[in-house]
Amino acid sequence: MIDDLYAEGYAVEAFTQWTIDVLEPHGFTAANTLPLVGVCRDELMFPVEQAVNDAWGLSFDMSSLGGMIFLGRSGLAAASHHSPGEDGRHRYLCIVLPHIGLEHTMGVGYVRREGQAEPSSACGALIALLGELRAGVRNHELDHGDLEMSLLRMTLLPLIGAEVADLATLTEIARRASTDELLRLVVSLRDSPHSDVAVVSGMVIHGPDGDRVAVSEAWVSVGSGDQVSLI
Ligand SMILES: [Zn+2]
User: Fold this and answer.
1) Where are the beta strands (DSSP E) in the chain?
2) 0.85 exceeded by the pTM?
3) pLDDT of the residue at 81
4) CA of 70 to the centre of ligand 1 (A)
5) What are the DSSP calls for 57-117, one per residue?
6) 150 CA to middle of ligand 1, Å?
7) Fewest C-beta atoms under 10 Å: which of 13, 119, 200, 204?
8) 135: CA distance to ligand 1 center in Å?
9) pLDDT confidence of residue 209
């Protein structure tokens, strides 16, 4: 599954160019759009964030461990006060991208980081959860000393069946959960007839030929209009 997604995915610059190409006809430009980006905190994701910043201007950061979206109503309300609006419209491009390693010898879940002799794991937070599942541990408690990881567990565990998922499946579950949370939050933006909202959701795969972005869902809604698919 991850190999196929990787083969079909966009290189990072091609991904941001694609977002420009599909959103320009709907009136979105770098000058009039606020990008909101939700990725994992891992430094491996910084080049992707940087590419979005280069294409769309500085982004509002929704990121948490695992690419989960935990900024809540208050976080989104803050972002809503930052959008340009010179032409009377407020445009938001929301991008959600969990990530996964695909190292050429070790395979899914591994990545070769600069300065390290051996491959390490990605996404570490999701691999940690997978380890707990395989050990039969399902901890649903909020840990104030480990907020993001415990919130990640609390969000994902109800979505994981009795069978222990593999990492690719778990990453897809995380992507859907993050996207669902984003959709719940952007309802408040879409309620305004002056807001245009685009959502792009996918997975970043750190593969043997560099990072690629596999887009799973993408749509735009202009004003009170229906969602228009971008893929
Ligand atoms: Zn990660």
Assistant:
1) 10-11, 33-39, 60-61, 90-97, 99-103, 107-108, 110-111, 120-121, 195-207, 210-222, 228-229
2) yes
3) 87
4) 15
5) SSPEE---GGG----HHHHHHHHHTSS--TTS-EEEEEEEE-EEEEETTTEETEE--TT-S
6) 15
7) 13
8) 21
9) 93
What's the chain's length in residues? Answer: 231
CA of 42 to the centre of ligand 1 (A): 5
- For the chain, list residues with pLDDT below 70: none
Give phi and psi for 55, each to the nearest 5: -80, -35
Identify the DSSP state of 12.
H
Residues 6+ apart with CB under 8 A from 226: none
112 CA from centroid of ligand 1 (Å): 14
Residue 220 has a pLDDT of 97
Q: How far is ligand 1, taken at its centre, from the CA of residue 86, in Å?
A: 37
* Nearest residue to 56 (alpha-carbon basis) of 17, 12, 99, 98: 17
CA of 62 to the centre of ligand 1 (A): 14
pLDDT attached to residue 25:
97
C-alpha of residue 36 to centroid of ligand 1, in Å: 18
Q: Report the pLDDT value the prediction gives residue 102, as an integer from 0 to 100.
A: 95
Ligand 1 mean position, distance from CA 119 (Å): 14
